């Protein structure tokens, strides 16, 4: 900035302009009109050059102040001079000064307005910050109140749950005490009878009367009937109701907890979500099959042992006594390790249809899940009214909304089951807990149940263990055309020929 200003000062341009003005004043009266105009034009040209130099200096000064440097001064002082007709309006010097004064007054007024606006903006910002602080305080108070209310509600629910659990445990304890008293009473009666038989007291009148008095309570009250008068084979027995509810709860917990953990383990070895779901499904199915076979052997052994007693009871009393023995001792008679190995062997028979998750470990990667499934299946089999899983009739069956719910990735426009995810829990043909399936377009490659519908009419307890398992895939394999024709025929029987044609279109 200093160098251009120094050059302008050293050029003495304003001195030359002053000399030209004095010279023009001296010879003004002697010159003609054209000569005076020429002199005036020269002075204007010189003045224009000086103004250009000044404007260049002004631009340099403004650039040093930033993008808006000197804007207010330029607007207030130069814009009125650049107005149209200002120099040719014929205003007197006094009038020009008044115009400049009014312009400066307006500029100062504008500055005052800007300052007032800035102050009001600062006040609004301070008010906004204060309101934000107040809002934060109110929000924290609201969160504290919500947390307190939630904690109170959780405490109330926990107390209610504790009360319910205590009532349930009390009812179970009472039923077990009644069962213990009943068994002790029957044991004492049986001991008295054996003692009388060993004594060999066969007097005609007196001994017969005493014998009748001792045997009379045994004949009036059945052997296996509890004190409350409810048979252990009845579904209204408190112990059976409690065990039934516990089994259903464990079945749901295995679906929501153990199944998710097993899926996570399988995902590390096998990157096929549908196949992993099929592996879990068949693990549960085979666990129930193995549990039913083991329980059938255990029940027959207990029945034979009780039937070979010195004074065997009647058939009805024998069934009640067997169920009472199962209620007490069946939980400790289960061989979980053997059942787990049988389940894994049964699943290995399905290897052409089911992929092995690990070449080295096989299905042992979900060994913990299979153990839990075997324990649950054993508990379901030991009930007086046993719980069982519904076995699918064949692959690609039509979905039954009463037994299954669709998964989140299902195609709701499809009516055929692509693959099963979780079996349905039933009791005497009634659905206790729904299963889960995936419905998609196209035939699945995971189905292993292509048994005819008539096989489902066989009772779960009378069905042999070999029949409950799937046959070898090599023996069951049929030609693609034959299997497709069978599937279409089954679909026509369930939906009708018109619905099948619309579905195929």
TrEMBL record:
<keyword id="KW-0446">Lipid-binding</keyword>
<dbReference type="Pfam" id="PF16026">
    <property type="entry name" value="MIEAP"/>
</dbReference>
<dbReference type="InterPro" id="IPR031981">
    <property type="entry name" value="MIEAP_C"/>
</dbReference>
<feature type="region of interest" description="Disordered">
    <location>
        <begin position="449"/>
        <end position="476"/>
    </location>
</feature>
<protein>
    <recommendedName>
        <fullName>Mitochondria-eating protein</fullName>
    </recommendedName>
</protein>
<feature type="coiled-coil region">
    <location>
        <begin position="107"/>
        <end position="196"/>
    </location>
</feature>
<dbReference type="InterPro" id="IPR026169">
    <property type="entry name" value="MIEAP"/>
</dbReference>
<keyword id="KW-1000">Mitochondrion outer membrane</keyword>
<feature type="compositionally biased region" description="Polar residues">
    <location>
        <begin position="454"/>
        <end position="471"/>
    </location>
</feature>
<keyword id="KW-0472">Membrane</keyword>
<dbReference type="GO" id="GO:0035695">
    <property type="term" value="P:mitophagy by internal vacuole formation"/>
</dbReference>
<keyword id="KW-0496">Mitochondrion</keyword>
<keyword id="KW-0175">Coiled coil</keyword>
<dbReference type="GO" id="GO:0005741">
    <property type="term" value="C:mitochondrial outer membrane"/>
</dbReference>
<comment type="similarity">
    <text>Belongs to the MIEAP family.</text>
</comment>
<dbReference type="GO" id="GO:0035694">
    <property type="term" value="P:mitochondrial protein catabolic process"/>
</dbReference>
<dbReference type="GO" id="GO:0005759">
    <property type="term" value="C:mitochondrial matrix"/>
</dbReference>
<feature type="domain" description="Mitochondria-eating protein C-terminal">
    <location>
        <begin position="243"/>
        <end position="439"/>
    </location>
</feature>
<keyword id="KW-0963">Cytoplasm</keyword>
<dbReference type="GO" id="GO:0008289">
    <property type="term" value="F:lipid binding"/>
</dbReference>
């Amino acid at each position: 900035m200093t160098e251009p200003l120094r050059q302008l000062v050293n050029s003495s341009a304003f001195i030359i302009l002053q000399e030209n003005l004095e010279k023009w004043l001296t010879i003004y009266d002697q010159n003609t009109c054209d000569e005076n105009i020429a002199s005036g034009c020269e002075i204007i040209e010189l003045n224009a050059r000086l103004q250009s130099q000044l404007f260049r200096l002004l631009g340099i000064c403004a650039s040093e102040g930033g993008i808006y440097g000197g804007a207010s001064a330029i607007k207030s002082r130069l814009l009125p001079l650049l107005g149209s007709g200002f120099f040719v309006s014929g205003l007197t010097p006094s009038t020009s000064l008044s115009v400049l004064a009014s312009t400066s007054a307006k500029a100062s007024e504008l500055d005052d307005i800007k300052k007032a606006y800035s102050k009001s903006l600062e006040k609004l910002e301070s008010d906004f910050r204060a309101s934000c602080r107040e809002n934060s305080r109110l929000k924290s108070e609201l969160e504290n109140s919500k947390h307190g209310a939630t904690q109170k509600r959780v405490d109330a629910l926990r107390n209610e749950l504790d009360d319910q659990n205590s009532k349930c445990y009390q009812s179970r304890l009472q039923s077990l005490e009644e069962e213990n008293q009943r068994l002790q009473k029957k044991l004492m009666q049986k001991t008295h009878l054996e003692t009388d038989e060993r004594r060999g007291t066969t007097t005609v009148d007196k001994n017969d009367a005493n014998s009748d008095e001792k045997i009379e309570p045994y004949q009036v009250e059945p052997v296996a009937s509890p004190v409350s008068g409810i048979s252990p084979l009845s579904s209204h027995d408190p112990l059976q109701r409690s065990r039934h509810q516990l089994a259903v709860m464990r079945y749901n917990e295995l679906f929501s907890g153990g199944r998710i953990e097993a899926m996570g383990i399988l995902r590390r070895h096998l990157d096929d979500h549908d196949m992993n779901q099929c592996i879990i499904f068949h693990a549960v199915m085979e666990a129930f099959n193995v549990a039913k076979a083991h329980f059938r052997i255990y029940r027959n052994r207990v029945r034979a042992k009780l039937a070979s007693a010195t004074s065997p009871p009647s058939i009805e009393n024998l069934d009640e006594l067997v169920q009472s023995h199962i209620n007490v001792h069946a939980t400790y008679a289960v061989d979980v390790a053997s059942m787990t190995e049988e389940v894994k062997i049964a699943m290995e028979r399905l290897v052409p249809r089911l992929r092995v998750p690990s070449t080295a470990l096989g299905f042992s990667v979900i060994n913990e899940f299979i153990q839990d499934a075997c324990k649950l299946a054993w508990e379901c089999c030991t009930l007086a009214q046993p719980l069982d899983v519904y076995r699918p009739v064949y692959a690609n069956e039509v979905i039954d909304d009463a037994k299954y719910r669709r998964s989140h990735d299902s195609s709701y426009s499809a009516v055929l089951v692509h693959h099963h995810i979780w079996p349905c829990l039933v009791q005497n043909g009634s659905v206790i807990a729904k299963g889960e399936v995936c419905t998609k377009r196209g035939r699945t490659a995971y189905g292993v149940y292509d048994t005819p519908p008539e096989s489902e009419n066989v009772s779960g307890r009378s069905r042999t263990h070999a029949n409950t398992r799937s046959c070898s895939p090599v023996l069951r394999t049929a030609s693609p055309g034959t299997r497709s024709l069978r599937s279409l025929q089954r679909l026509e029987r369930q939906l009708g020929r018109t619905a099948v044609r619309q579905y195929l279109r």
